[in-house]
Design brief:
The chain is 48% helix and 13% strand. Among the domains are: 2-346, Kinesin (3-Layer(aba) Sandwich), CATH 3.40.850.10; 510-649, no CATH class. The structure holds adenosine-5'-triphosphate. The site of adenosine-5'-triphosphate (ATP) has 17 residues, from α3 and β15. It comes from Dioscorea cayennensis subsp. rotundata (White Guinea yam).
Length: 864
């Protein structure tokens, strides 16, 4: 039965199905009452055992327990109802019926059982402090088939409703939460007072209604330590005091009592029918709905409840038949089987409480997890920060190294004036940046990776380029040179590689120093042919296409050079080799034009780099000489040489100036002597004092132009030289140097046309870039090129500097080449780049940039 108004309880069940058991049926014989004694009634029923009752006819009735008239209610309770009643505290529904004739002692027995049950329930609760119990109490009576709430003073009938889930329940029934045992007792007394009682002939206090007291007990563990602990047990125990069956004749009922009796008997008859049918099984129809009593007690009679029935009888012979009917009812009831199971329920409150505790547990776990996780993350973050700081430091170092290398290489490029080198530098920069980036990525990906910027592998790029702090510009230059040789000179800047170097070789001996140095030209063609300087079996192999040497050497050494074949030049002695090595290092293209600081840096370069750069042969002695560069702490000849060379150059400059002044003076004197018939001696230092300089200049320039053509000298070289040297008397030295150099080249080396062809191809492309269509057409017409012909630009390029005898053609060629190469401001170019630098200081100048189409000058002694 579900009673409206009670706390909603969800019955879960024990999951194991109900345990089937028969109803516990007992019979209690009350003592003869005063009226029966007065009528000399005697007891016709005798309990011959605890389970068997026998009437005067020796008929035996066996039940679960039988209690004689002398038996106390407590004993009846303990032996017939206690076990069933206390099932409620374990979550099993239970019901205790008292059934019998009117005035047989039902109410008397039920009151006693209820009292004992309350006592035992509270005793159980007290003994189980680990669980929390909630007791709720409700009470109804069915009077004349009307349901009434005994806890309410409102006598209005309540409806009995059926619900698919809740079952049959009484609508709007009040349910009191029991505070304590006394409260429950008070409620029981209140219900007792509310019950309909009427006086009959058999019972002054006859109960005229069926009373159903329901005590619902919910219990749950106070601590939720395991799965079962949070289950709440909920069950109800029904104390059912039925109205007494009566015969109207015996009860002398009339009027209201007769009407009550008819309702009572009808409901009891239905109850009997239900019991009888249930005793035969549950296959047939069970007429629960034939009365409100059976309808409400449906679950207690044949469902999920343990049921105990105490049948009370009067021992008087006058009630023998009624007593026998009661025993027959009891006998049928004893056959009824119920299936009670534990009602593990979870009420809304229990569910909320459980969820709250579960949430608290999860929150605790989460806090713990967050705490531990936070600690882990904190450690990880600190490690990452340390790695980042380390990487930042390494990045900073790398950037500094890169900038240093960039600065040095830029200096070199400024000196060389080679766009190809610029591209190399771009690639180098990209490579460096890529390297730095990759290094950074590497550090990011593997924090344990230690980057050592001084490791050689980091200097070894796919193109064998060095980008480290000790950047090996020699390698760069060499790489670029070799590549330039492989690639076509496809651009003007490529021609900047046409470096021709003039070295001033210090005289080995003091005697030689005292002698006047003679200008000689050692020019190594820049083609693929290599040059070797064989000095007393010390073969000095210079990088192909790297060295052009215009050396001031002893006259006898010049002779040796000229007689020593084309590929091997014997110039230097052993003792002068150190100077050669230095000069070589400073004369090899860009590297050889490094300022002194760069030369100093050479001494600190990694050994491997030096070995790559200075491939000077295998002679041990030569290696020993090379060791000079491997020992940074050892004072190198470089500075000394530079100083001495500078001193020498200074002297040479003074000589040149003196010669010029002397020439001028001699010319004047000659004119005077001619006037006075005098003669004067001439000192051969490249300028005949007796010759008019203007005529001599034109003659020498014409010779040089012829030699340029014969030696396939770069058109740009010709152009620059042609535009820079226009007859200034001070240019005599440069003119003579250039002439002698060309004479040497003409006599010594085979000049290749390949580079010249490439140069013309470059100029052809420059025409497209630097000249407009109108300018080009104008030039085609001027130079006799058919406008409708093919490859007009190439035709024009091939015509440049082709007519050496035609001064106007040469001049126009020079002008056009200058325009194509961007050489628009001759005043920005220094003549020293074509000759000896008479600049005594070692400072490095950046007045010109190869990117502007100008050859950069240097402090050094190189010539282009
Ligand atoms: N076992 C008993 N020992 C002593 N007195 C008893 C016993 N049983 C019943 N009585 C007394 O019998 C009288 C009638 O009992 P009770 O009212 O309990 O009968 P009842 O079956 O409830 O009758 P009704 O059906 O009319 O209500 C009461 O005065 C009660 O005190």
């Amino acid at each position: 039965m579900r009673i409206a108004g009670e706390d909603e309880v969800m019955v879960i069940g024990d999951g194991c199905g109900g345990k089937e058991e028969r109803m516990l049926v007992s019979v209690r014989i009350r003592p003869l009452n005063s009226m029966e004694i007065a009528r000399n009634e005697f007891s016709v029923w005798e309990c011959i055992s605890n389970t068997t009752i026998m009437n005067q006819n020796k008929c035996f009735y066996e039940f679960d327990r039988v209690f004689g008239c002398e038996c106390t209610t407590k004993k009846v309770y303990e032996n017939s109802a206690k076990e069933v009643v206390l099932s409620v505290v374990n979550g099993v529904n239970s019901s205790v019926f008292v059934y019998g004739q009117t005035s047989s002692g039902k109410t008397y027995t039920m009151n006693g059982i209820t009292e004992c049950s309350v006592a035992d329930v509270y005793e159980y609760i007290e003994r189980h402090e680990e669980r929390e119990f909630v007791l709720k109490f409700s009470a109804i009576e069915i009077y004349n088939e009307v349901v009434r709430d005994l806890l309410s003073t409102d006598a209005r009938p309540l409806r009995v409703l059926d619900d698919p889930e809740r079952g049959t329940f009484v609508e709007k029934l009040r349910e009191e939460t029991v505070r304590n045992k006394d409260h429950l007792k008070a409620l029981l007394l209140f219900c007792q007072a509310q019950r309909q009682i009427g006086e009959t002939s058999l019972n002054e206090m006859s109960s005229r209604s069926h009373q159903i007291l329901r005590l619902t007990i919910e219990s749950s563990a106070r601590r939720y330590s395991d799965k079962d602990s949070f289950s709440t047990l909920s069950a109800s125990v029904n104390f059912i005091d039925l109205a007494g069956s009566e015969r109207a004749s015996q009860a002398l009922s009339e009027g209201i009592r007769l009407k009550e009796g008819s309702h009572i008997n009808r409901s009891l008859l239905t109850l009997g029918t239900v019991i009888r049918k249930l005793s035969k099984g549950r296959n047939g129809h069970i007429p629960y709905r034939d009365s409100k009593l059976t309808r409400i007690l449906q679950s207690s009679l044949g469902g999920n409840a343990r049921t105990a029935i105490i049948c009370t009888i009067s021992p008087a012979r006058s009630h023998f038949e009624q007593s026998r009917n009661t025993l027959l009812f009891a006998k049928c009831a004893r056959e009824v089987v119920t299936s009670a199971h534990v009602n593990a329920v979870m009420s809304d409150k229990a569910m909320v409480k459980h969820l709250q505790k579960k949430l608290a547990t999860l929150e605790t776990e989460l806090r713990y997890t967050s705490s531990t996780s936070g600690t882990f993350h904190s450690v990880a973050l600190r490690e990452r920060d340390a790695r980042i700081r380390k990487m930042e430091k390494e990045m900073k170092e790398l950037i500094q190294q890169r900038d240093l290398a960039q600065s040095r290489l830029e200096d070199l490029l400024l000196v060389v004036g080679d766009e190809q080198a610029s591209r190399e530098w771009d690639e180098l920069s990209q490579l460096s940046a890529s390297y730095v980036s990759n290094a950074y990525d590497d550090v990011l990906s593997a924090s344990d990776t230690t980057f050592d910027p001084l490791k050689e592998e980091y200097y070894t790029s796919p193109r064998n380029l060095s980008i480290g702090p000790m950047s090996n510009s020699v390698l760069v230059t060499r790489q670029w040179t070799e590549e330039a040789e492989q690639d076509s000179y496809s651009d003007f800047e490529d021609l900047c590689k046409e470096v021709q170097c003039i070295e001033v070789v210090e005289q080995k001996t003091s005697a030689n120093k005292e002698s006047n140095p003679l200008l000689s030209v050692n020019h190594q063609k820049h083609a693929s042919q290599g040059a070797s300087f064989n000095t007393d079996n010390n073969l000095v192999k210079l990088c192909p296409n790297e060295v052009s040497a215009l050396s001031l050497v002893k006259e006898e050494e010049i002779q040796n050079v000229r007689t020593n074949g084309t590929d091997t030049i014997r110039v230097y002695s052993d003792e002068s080799y150190r100077s050669l090595a230095l000069r070589k290092s400073r004369s090899c293209r860009a590297t050889m034009m490094m300022p002194s600081q760069c030369v100093k840096d050479f001494h600190t370069r990694p050994q491997g780099i030096y070995q790559k750069h200075i491939a000077l042969g295998s002679n041990p002695e030569q290696k020993a000489s090379n060791d000079v560069f491997k020992k940074p702490n050892k004072k190198c000849v470089s500075e000394d040489n530079i100083t001495s060379i500078c001193e020498f150059v200074t002297e040479l400059k003074e000589i040149a100036q003196v010669q010029y002044q002397k020439t001028t003076t001699d010319s004047q004197e000659l004119r005077q002597s001619e006037d006075f018939g005098m003669t004067s001696s001439v000192k051969d230092i490249g300028l005949d004092p007796m010759t008019n300089w203007s005529m001599e200049f034109e003659k020498r320039r014409k010779d040089i132009i012829e030699l340029w053509h014969a030696c396939n000298v770069s058109l740009i070289h010709r152009t620059y030289f042609f535009l820079l040297f226009k007859g200034d008397p001070a240019d005599s030295v440069y003119m003579e140097v250039e002439r002698r150099r060309l004479l040497f080249l003409k006599d010594t080396f085979f000049s290749s046309m390949r580079n010249l062809r490439r140069e013309r191809e470059m100029l052809c492309r420059q025409m497209w870039r630097r000249l407009s269509a109108i300018e080009r057409e104008r030039l085609y017409s001027k130079w006799g090129i058919e406008l409708c012909s093919k490859k007009r630009r190439m035709q024009l390029a091939n015509l440049l500097w082709s007519e050496t005898e035609n001064t106007e053609h040469v001049s126009e060629s020079a002008s056009l080449v200058a325009k194509l190469t961007g050489f628009l401001k001759p005043e920005h170019a220094l003549k020293e780049m074509f000759g000896l630098s008479f600049t005594p200081q070692m400072m490095y100048k950046r007045s010109c940039s190869c990117r502007n189409g100008l050859y950069s000058n240097s402090k050094s002694i190189q010539f282009f």
